[in-house]
Structures are given as C-alpha cells and as structure tokens.
Specification:
Length: 281
C-alpha cells in the first residue's frame, strides 16, 4: 500500500511555488499578495488561518490577515472586500468560513472579484470550472486531485466515487475528475447503498464528516482512497476512512492528519500565484 504523504507532496509544491515567486518578482518587479479575513475567535479557524499565513510567508508571498470580532457588521466586511478588490497589490482574497450567522456567506463570496477569489467559491468560478474554462479551483479538491494524479497520471475511464456533495469538496472534485475522463458518481446522505457504490470505485474521495465511515469491505482491491475528513473523537482526530483496515486493501491511501490538510494550504498559495499571473496578462 502506498501511504500518500500529503505533508511531503505539499512541501515539494511549496518549494516549486517559492521558486516561481522569485521568478515572478524578477519579471514583474512585484510579488503576489494574499489577504485572509478572519471573523470571530473559533479555534479551528484561528489555527487554519495561522497555518495559511505561515505557508504564504514561507513561499515569499505578501500576506496579511485582517481580523474582526464576531459581532462585526456585514457592511464593514463587504466594504473591506471592495477596498481589497481595488488594491492592485492584492492578488487573492480569502474569507475564512464558517461565518457568524448574521453575515450572509453568499453575499460575501459574491463580493470578492472572481479574479481574486482564491477559494474558487464565486459563482463565476464555479460555472467556469463546470464548463471546462479557466477558473480558480477550490483548494481542498485541487489538493486531492494533485495527490491522485501523483499515484495515477492517467485517469481516463476510472470510476470515481465522491462521498459528500458539498460546494467545498464533492461537487468541484467531481468536476476535476470528470475533466480527466473519469466516470464520476456523487453520493450523499440519501444514497441508497453507499457501500455498493464504493465497491465499484477505482477512486474514492470521502468528505462527509462521519468518523471512519468507509470500511475495508467497502473498498475494491487497488483503489485509491482520499480521506478529506477531520473528525474529533474520544480516540483523537480521525478521518472518514477506517485507516487501519482500509490500508490493508487499498492501493493508496491518505493519512489523517498529514494527507489532504497540508495540500489544501499549499493549493491556496498556488491559487494566489495563479490569480496574480492571470492579472498580469
Ligand atoms: N473553512 C474550511 N475550509 C475552508 C476553505 O477551503 N476556504 C475557506 N474560505 N474557509 C474554509
């Protein structure tokens, strides 16, 4: 079994991006800039944002975090996004989710210029991705995709099963694999026989938030299994895949932690650089 070392692949990607930033700086005499907006003091969001900032600095991006208290008015956030949209030194804007209930998530997403939407959540980017045009691609599925391609460069004809239909992962992941000529099934909580669907799959991407849902007898021998889950349990953090037993049947599997997580962050940096490059065209 191949243990897909997301930490190592992400470190390699960051090194490539660091070199690219040096080249871009030489060519354009400026560097890509990422601004992250963080609202409230939820612990996981604080941790993620700190990791994003550290990684951005490591590859030489200009990076800034703007923090607001939980009770901040929606208008203040939208006005700040408008200001960042106009700021030529900012290539990418990310508003960390989830947001407090009084702030309209979709309004926030749609206020970010599509060209600066490093999350790929703006409807314009969602539409472009599904139409096969150039777009920002959400960081988590992009990271999963890069890991899958490392294991299997030619995905044509493979059967891929997404577990979960979220805008953050399941749907964009399906689009990426469809572009690679996979036959894609998106499953969800109302799917009749999830085990039977998974047993058909050459590739499984699990992103539902149910601890160790995917068992060894759900997985075809030699399948590639990507575990997006991060679930807090009495036994510590576990993914959506029963790692120990699935590792005995799968061809390749991502660990939790150390799989998808580091790749998500590296892909945010990649997206920031892509937005910068498109803006210089
Ligand atoms: N919160 C959890 N994952 C994400 C993500 O990919 N983007 C943003 N903006 N917030 C998140």
């Amino acid at each position: 079994m191949i243990l897909i070392d997301g930490k190592k692949i992400a470190a390699e990607l960051r090194e490539e991006l660091r070199q690219e930033v040096v080249e871009l700086k030489a060519k354009h005499n400026k560097i890509p800039g990422l601004t992250v907006i963080l609202i409230g003091d939820m612990a996981p969001s604080q941790i993620y944002v700190r990791m994003k900032e550290k990684a951005a600095n490591e590859v030489g991006l200009k990076s800034e975090v703007i923090r607001y208290p939980e009770a901040v008015e929606e208008k203040i956030v939208l006005d700040k996004i408008e200001e960042l949209n106009k700021d030529e030194s900012i290539s990418g804007i990310l508003v960390q989710l989830p947001l407090p209930k009084h702030i309209d998530k979709q309004k926030v997403i749609e206020t970010i210029l599509p060209g600066k939407d490093v999350d790929g959540f703006h409807p314009m980017n969602v539409g472009n991705l599904s139409s096969g045009y150039e777009s920002s691609v959400p960081c988590t599925p992009l990271g999963c995709y890069l890991m899958i391609k490392k294991i299997e460069p030619n995905l044509t004809g493979k059967k891929a099963v997404m577990i979960g239909r979220s805008n953050l992962n399941g749907k964009p992941m399906a689009q990426l694999l469809l572009k690679e000529n996979c036959t894609v099934t998106i499953t969800h909580s109302k799917t009749k026989d999830l085990k039977a669907e998974c047993l058909e799959a050459d590739i499984i991407v699990a992103a539902v938030g149910i601890p160790e849902l995917v068992k060894a007898d759900w997985v075809k021998k030699d399948a590639i299994v990507i575990d997006v889950g991060i679930n807090k349990t009495d036994n510590g953090i576990v993914g959506d895949v029963a790692f120990d037993e699935v590792s005995k049947v799968a061809r390749a599997l991502t660990p939790v932690p150390g799989g998808v997580g580091p790749m998500t962050i590296a892909c945010l940096l990649k997206n920031t650089i892509e937005c910068f490059k498109r803006s210089q065209k």
